[in-house]
Specification:
The complex is a heterodimer of chains A (136) and B (145). Chain A has 136 residues and is mainly α. Chain A contains five helices and no strands. In chain A, 33% of the residues are buried. In chain A, 85% of the residues lie in helices and 0% in strands. In chain B, helix 2 packs antiparallel against helix 3 and helix 3 packs antiparallel against helix 4. The chains are: A mainly alpha (136), B mainly alpha (145). Chains A and B meet through helix 2, helix 3 and helix 5 of A and helix 1, helix 2 and helix 4 of B.
Chain lengths: 136, 145
């Protein structure tokens, strides 16, 4: 019983220490992290899949120009999943913030890449359409 | 400095101060979590809307072509995009209402989005193998003859 209490106390102290030594997380970090921790394996798997597919695609030199984005996205997801796991187990708000910053960057890069692809697609359609009309 | 031992009403000023600091800590932590989570909510919404449009268009195309495989992939992609869109809406609500519950709902939906993305990939791989192996066998038999 005493050992359990000591362990509990040391956990609480550790939580305080991870938040600048003066703050009390009060389980909020774990509570928030648990919402995505259930799916952490899938996030990790998504990261590794993106990484592996991008590496395989980059073996063709032409695709190397594009696939580094996929590698980057995969690394971001893996980092995020690892930080979520740490935040869930230790209650560290810094790890939770790090996980969110990696997720945010993931969606920002995804958005920018999608936007670029959309513009390139529209541009290609216009040029293709114009070419088709001029030849027929 | 913990909520496990709340200060009684007729307590001294020291304990009251402790309780106030705990509440303050909770508010600071909540703010930090919500701020860091909702920082790029615009990009998440953009990716979600784009995903929805692409999924709907590919599903319509598959329906017109009566492509069963395309329909299966399109439905999974659409559900995945819906989860991301729901996550982005919850993220927006978490930002405006400063609610941790909305943050958790959003995180849960994000998790489901990643899970469905992997399922989509697995379905695609399974379908490729399902089509590729018979095609390779037919080609092998044809060349052997």
């Amino acid at each position: 019983m005493n050992t359990a209490q000591n362990e509990s106390h040391s956990d609480s102290t550790q939580q305080d220490a991870t938040f600048g030594g003066t703050f009390n997380n009060n389980g909020i970090v774990q509570d928030v992290a648990s919402a995505i921790y259930k799916y952490n394996t899938w996030v990790m798997l998504a990261g590794y899949t993106s990484l592996i597919i991008s590496i395989l695609l980059s073996l063709t030199i032409v695709a190397l120009v594009v696939t580094w984005v996929g590698i980057w996205l995969g690394i971001l997801l893996i980092r995020s999943a690892k930080s979520i796991k740490t935040a869930y187990t230790t209650g560290s708000i810094y790890d939770l913030e790090h996980a969110f910053s990696q997720l945010n960057l993931y969606f920002k890069i995804s958005g920018i890449v999608s936007l670029i692809l959309l513009i390139l697609g529209l541009f290609a359609s216009i040029i293709g359409g114009a070419f088709y009309l001029s030849t027929h | 400095m913990s909520f496990d031992n709340p200060a009684p009403e007729n307590n001294n000023s020291g304990t009251n101060q402790e309780s106030t600091t705990s509440t303050g800590d909770t508010t600071i932590i909540t703010e930090r979590i919500i701020n860091s989570f909702t920082q790029n909510r615009g990009w998440v919404s953009f990716v979600a809307i784009l995903g929805l449009i692409v999924a709907i268009l590919s599903l319509i195309q598959a329906l017109f072509q009566s492509d069963v495989i395309g329909i299966i992939v399109g439905i999974v992609a659409l559900v995945s995009a819906i989860f991301l869109f729901t996550a982005s809406r919850s993220m927006q609500r978490a930002y405006t209402s400063r609610s941790l519950d909305e943050t958790k709902v959003s995180l849960s939906n994000l998790g489901k989005y990643f899970m469905l993305n992997i399922l989509l990939l697995l379905v695609s791989f399974a379908l490729i193998l399902f089509l590729l192996i018979p095609a390779a066998l037919i080609a092998f038999i044809h060349t052997a003859q």
